[in-house]
Amino acid sequence: MGKIILDKMAMQRALTRITYEIVEKNKGVEDLVLIGIKTRGIFLANRIADRLQQLENVSIPVGELDITNYRDDIEHDAMSSDVKMSNNKINFSIEGKRVILVDDVLYTGRTVRAALSAVMDLGRPKSINLAVLVDRGHRELPIRADFVGKNIPSSQKEKIKVYVSEIDDKDAVELIK
Amino acid sequence: MTIDIKKVLLLGGGPTNIGHENELDAAAFERLMALKKTGAKIIYVDDNAFSVTTEEIQPANVYVQEVSFQNVVTIIDKEHPDAIMATTGGLNGMQIAWQLAESGILASNNITLLGIKPADLRKVMDNQKLRDTLTEINEKVIASKIVADDDEAMDFVREVGFPVIVKPMSSSHDTSRFICNNTDELEDALDVSFKRTYIKRCSIEQSIVGYKEIEMVGIRDANGNKILISGMEDMDPIGIHSGDSIIFAPTQTLINEEYQALRTATFRIMDSLNITGTCHVQFAQSRTDSNYFVTKVSPFFTRNTILAAKATGYPLTYVSSFLELGYNLTEIKLPSRYSKFLAFMEPTMDHVVVKIPLWPFRDITDVDQHLNTLMKSVGSTIGIGRTVEEAIIKSMHSSQFSPRDILPSVSTVDDDDVINQLIHPLASRILILMEALHRGFSIDELSELTQIDRFYFYKLNQLLRAQDFVVNNPLSPQSIEIGHKYGFGDGMLAELWKVNISKIQQMNENYKNHVTYKAIEPSAGEFLECTNVFYSSYELENESRPFTEKSALVIGRGGNQLGPNSAADYYTSQILRSLHKCGYKTIIMNTNPNAVSLTPQLSDKQYIEPIQLGNILNIIELEKPDVVILPGNRHYLSKQLKQFKALNIIVLPPDQKIATYNQKKATTAVDLFIEGNEILPVTTISFVGKDQLTDLRFINDYKEPMDNWESDEDKLIANASKNIDTHEWQGLVQVLYNTNGDSKYEMTGIRPVRITETAFLTKTTGINWINVLVRKYLGKLDMVSLREDWQPTEHKRSAIMTAHFPFRELQSGRSEGTTKQEVGSSLSFKNFE
Amino acid sequence: MTERYLILEDGSAYAGKAFGSLATTTGEIVANSTMNGYQEIISNQIYHNQIIVFTQSSIGNTGLDQNAYESILPSAKGVIVREYENLATDHFKRISLDRYLKQHKIPGIYDVDTREIRHHLQRRGNMKASIVDVADDHAFDQLHATVLTNQQVAQVATPKPFPNPDEGANVVVVDFGLKSGILRELSHRDCNVTVVPWNFSSAQILDLDPDGIVLSTGPGSPANLPNSVLDMITDVQSQAPLFAIGLGHELFALANGAKITKLTVEHHGSNHPIREIITNEIFFSGQEQGYAVDPKSIDHAKLFITHVDLVNGTVQGLRHRDYPAFSVQFSPDGAPGPKDSVGLFDDFVEIMARRRDSNDDRY
């Protein structure tokens, strides 16, 4: 049985705080682009973009990244970049941009590493930052998030599940034992 | 993001019964006014014979049918609506919505269920799912378990502790429940219960008897914005059904921390169910710590949803209609009478509302009259005051059905009986509480016996002290001041001192004790402009300005009882509409929070005041209405009011005292409308009593037109017209006949058409006879167009009005009832071949 | 029952009955429309030198709760209500309202038309008032002659620092007339709190090595405080996360170049929707405000407006663009009032935690 760690309100507030911190750290929203990682990161990136729109009245581009083919834990044949990028929707140039990668959970760091490779394949951004809703620890790679909604220390046996109302009909983060 | 709707099916509440009275019709009516603004086509289904809502919709779009799953499916097949609003159908409406969702009918017909999504509806309607949902958001529910033997029961008790409640599981209407405080009691209860259940299962649950019952009503929009409309507190503890409890708004005995916790819980529940619209949540709050349990979640219209709206003056029904359609709170514009108040401001009160239930025990005597977990009340009245005492006393005299201004005494009850009734309360609950205080029971003792918070005894005690002072100091200015402060109307003072009310009025004049009226509005005086709903108080500022145009006061019927009450509410509503059409500013006075006649769109001004002589005269004094209409046969009140010669009083229907008929012999009637010496036949009726009884008191069904109308109607109408003396009879008149079905008719009497049947005639003939009557007595009747509109003998269909009785709900073995025991009626039509 | 009078600066007089202390007092009269929490309201230091009119018609029903005081020595000048109940009921409510008011020399008047008074104040605006035995010329002369102090903060704030130890984040609370609700919320989140006097310098504060700084609520106009307070704020806001509430919010705004205006009618209640601009959501909270940040004076290169009151348009929240420093006009602690925004304290704690994390090298 899952235990709710972040309810809807707490999730909303975490995203709000991340948004403010993004503006704070980047001294504004100039050259900012958001890239959401696979399913839930994309919805979170969109929500951050909505907040930036409300706050600064600017439309920040949001890209969608599917890093399945970059995972180093999945064996795959050598593929061309075209094939690798087939599920991505990034209709803007990241050249010289400040990229904020957005994901739901930061765990071993392998997903983010793959995302970094994928982004680097697209061009040369000015900087890449990472925003995650939950940091649950147990890193296997030297990766850290710049913006964190909530640190949730967890054992490796436990699972963290993020629900977003866009596809899960509720907003919540659950710890499943 | 609003939902684009072209055609919406609105579910009605059905005939009045225990559990719901006219509030669902009132809600549907208000909702209709809101929906009309959206341009959507509205389909309505309801068989309530006294529905005001059905009158407001194009007849072609009204289905006069029982609100049942099967009927709704048929209507969907025919009409193809793109949305359903079920919340105005109450619990029945929600159950139908659930069935529609579960059976896939909503999905396959591409119909949007408004207010709550099907997946979320399941979380409410399925008890186990609701428990899971609440547990998941960390809200506590009462632990319960189905057990098959003593060991399982003991395991459960070890987990939750005593007391527990044991109930046998059975499909019959067995509602026995055993409260067990220790192992011995538990063993006995299990022993008895297992014998009563053929499936050998008992339910056992944690007992919260004695907890405070708190009710919260909130609204939520699709964006997740929420407002708490009102918190309410049941004076009676858990163990007495909330529908049978005296209720206070706002809450009286919660500290801020407790109140805010329940508010937050209500919001979390609404969020977890994604409700767009209204939700009523009930809680059991511990008396000794901050612990609470969620006991009920109702995301639809309930009596107390409506009470929350009436108490605060917040236009809940109007706003929630738009919320269900997907509007955000910030997008909803309120009707102009709300002035600067905004739909998304949280209501705040500067007055107190007390609701007292009304029970049917005077008319149905052979049932268990104890107040417990089974609801028995059929209506309620509210009292509003600036102080708790004032609100209590007003609600108490509104709950007395005699219009005399005194409270009944229970001083003859002996001490043992008082104690017994404190522990096992009856309908006279509040009078017994006062009597016990009077006899010197200590407040601690009383609170212990009744589990009622000490606060209420303090207040009742102050009322008693005030009453003593008033009784012991007759006709003193100070007594009048104290009397007024505590809510004793002038009529009550007059009765207590045994003087004519004019004497008190004279004293008021001399000492400048003028009544003031305060607006019931949701901002607690933040905005200077006020709404059009008022209650009285003796203070500095009067906020009610009389109309400069010609005006009419209609004296409402008060709380629902058995008998023709919901018909009277319909009748009253129609009178208001007629008066409005005749160019009058309309003023209604009523105390029934569930009355359709109190909906804001039906009148220009509303007074929520006891229907008592003193209060009526005060309103008349201020408003100086050109006409006062008294619907219903209230002989005492009409006699009292007629003393005041300057008043232009119309009693509708006219006093029945001139009626002469044999009530034991009537099967058939001819209804006539008489204006001057002109007689207009309306229609014919057959009365159907149980077991072919011809007694007018035992009629269950009314049929229009009469049986054998093809052959017999013309001659019967001719006979009736011949036998009527137009000098003696005016307006709607009923000539009674008796027949054995052999086409031979014996005339057995004449009487004015009663309220119930006037409503029936209005529903069946397509002519609003209430409007006709109002016009007649205002001298504004246009006979020429009435004659043109009305073609009496063209019958294309037969209409049947069937009376409903609350016997099953009250667990009475009776099956046949008298007209005085009716709780509501349903209507149906059948086309002739 | 002694008859006493409430007299107003504009010449109005209201006769009512006395309860609580029989002192003669003068203060600014304000109406509060919150329906719960009379105890929290009366004991809030924001009402220093003010006479509170409750629009809620009945107070005192639940006695006084040990856990719901907002200050130890309340300094309101009076309580006006339609009716009060003098109950001291069960085990955790031992003191009655009457006794409490007597203890703290606060006079009360009941049995007056508080709805009329509310209307009157809405029409005429803020003014002085007295609670007196006789409403004669002398009383009015006294009222007119009374000059209310502008040293309210100095009178109610702690003169010496004191700790409220715990094991979490190290928070320095600058006391301008602190309400206990703020401490309660910080305690719930295990914060190790040091409350310091309002006139502590930035150096004195930073010497305590705070993980975060709270600027508290308090009475009166922010303009009555010396510029040294504003200097302190500009110094500390770049050094540690900062959360400012009520008077603290007004000072935070002043320190960042905004201007403050006095409301013609003070707003005390919890019925106004507050919009959080970034999410477009509305919520409710206890609001007790006589002053407001002028939105036109805000330098948008420095501050975000984060919250607005949708009824009167006042600024309800600000955030610095460059630092984790934010402020709200309302009381998110819900003592009294809705707890809809109590999560702001979670945000504050989370910001402090994030800051600590980024200062260590544990990954």
Automatic annotation (TrEMBL), chain A:
Organismal lineage: Bacteria, Bacillati, Bacillota, Bacilli, Lactobacillales
Name recorded for this polypeptide: Bifunctional protein PyrR
Coiled coil: none
Residue numbers covered by motif PRPP-binding: 99-111
Source organism (scientific name): Lentilactobacillus parabuchneri
Keyword Transferase: yes
Gene3D superfamilies in the record: 3.40.50.2020
Primary gene name: pyrR
Pfam family, one: Pribosyltran
Quaternary context: Homodimer and homohexamer; in equilibrium.
Automatic annotation (TrEMBL), chain B:
InterPro entries: ATP-grasp (IPR011761), ATP_grasp_subdomain_1 (IPR013815), CarbamoylP_synth_lsu_oligo_sf (IPR036897), CPAse_ATP-bd (IPR005479), CPSase_dom (IPR005483), CPSase_lsu_oligo (IPR005480), CPSase_preATP-grasp (IPR058047), PreATP-grasp_dom_sf (IPR016185)
GO function terms (MF aspect): ATP binding; carbamoyl-phosphate synthase (ammonia) activity; carbamoyl-phosphate synthase (glutamine-hydrolyzing) activity; metal ion binding
Enzyme class (EC, first level): ligase
PROSITE patterns: ATP_GRASP
Known EC number: 6.3.5.5
Any Pfam family hit: CPSase_L_D3
Catalytic activity entry: hydrogencarbonate + NH4(+) + 2 ATP = carbamoyl phosphate + 2 ADP + phosphate + 2 H(+)
One of the GO BP terms on file: pyrimidine nucleotide biosynthetic process
Gene3D superfamilies attached to this UniProt entry: 3.40.50.20, ATP-grasp fold, A domain, ATP-grasp fold, B domain, Carbamoyl-phosphate synthetase, large subunit oligomerisation domain
The keyword ATP-binding belongs to this UniProt entry's keyword annotation: yes
Cofactor: Mg(2+); Mn(2+)
Keywords of this entry: ATP-binding, Ligase, Manganese, Metal-binding, Nucleotide-binding, Pyrimidine biosynthesis, Repeat
UniProt-annotated stretches for the region Disordered: 811-833
Residue ranges annotated for the ATP-grasp domain, each copy included: 131-325
UniProt family annotation: Belongs to the CarB family.
Designated name of the protein: Carbamoyl-phosphate synthase large chain
UniProtKB/TrEMBL annotation, chain C:
Keywords for this protein: Amino-acid biosynthesis, Arginine biosynthesis, ATP-binding, Glutamine amidotransferase, Ligase, Nucleotide-binding, Pyrimidine biosynthesis
Carbamoyl-phosphate synthase small subunit N-terminal domain ranges (all copies): 2-132
Family matches, as SUPFAM superfamilies: Carbamoyl phosphate synthetase, small subunit N-terminal domain, Class I glutamine amidotransferase-like
Catalytic activity, EC: 6.3.5.5
GO MF: ATP binding; carbamoyl-phosphate synthase (glutamine-hydrolyzing) activity; glutaminase activity
Annotated active site: D333
Record-level GO BP terms: 'de novo' pyrimidine nucleobase biosynthetic process; 'de novo' UMP biosynthetic process; glutamine metabolic process; L-arginine biosynthetic process
Residue segments, region CPSase: 1-170
Name this polypeptide is given: Carbamoyl phosphate synthase small chain
Organism, scientific name: Lentilactobacillus sunkii DSM 19904
Gene name in the database record: carA
